[in-house]
Amino acid sequence: MATKCGVSGSDFLKDNPAKGFCSKLKPGQHVCCSSDTVQQKRNLLSFRGECETEKVQQDDSCAAIATRCAISGADFCSKLKPGQHVCCSSGTLPNFSPKPNKDGSCATTTVGDGESCSTIAAANSLTEKDIDGFNQKTWGWTGCKNIFKDSLLHKPTDPVWGVKIQNYGLR
């Protein structure tokens, strides 16, 4: 990558100082080629901004999404999930992961009819493993395989007690 940027290896690492940066590079990832403007060719790789997105609907086909995005169906993988966001243009997929509430408490979602950890994860830039991890210390949590409509799931912040149970005062 340093060669492609037209810089030395040490300059490349200086411009991209994150710990373990080189070992974590992934195809399509953006990198800094310069912390200054000395060489114009250092800017070969630049941030393209967020892409236009499309949310996968229940029973969507790759062909339907491709039509809405005006791109070839062959550009989509076969593992699309309802609720998942996909890029319909060049750029980077925005981060749809939930943020803590203003008071610092964890973000929550109520499981809707036909939803699963898989569909909730896809819609929120998460994995089922993430959801399971966020809820491990939540009272009454029995895992993603056992969620049902109207369950309350916690998202990435400190886990809290489950919903209030009448006559017990637990939260």
UniProtKB/TrEMBL annotation:
Keyword Zinc appears in the UniProt entry: no
Annotated LysM domain residues: 1-33
Alphabetically ordered keywords of this record: Chitin-binding, Virulence
Domain of life the protein comes from: Eukaryota
PROSITE patterns recorded: LYSM
Molecular function (Gene Ontology), one example: chitin binding
InterPro entries: LysM, LysM12-like, LysM_dom_sf
Protein name: LysM domain-containing protein
Organism the protein comes from: Penicillium cf. viridicatum
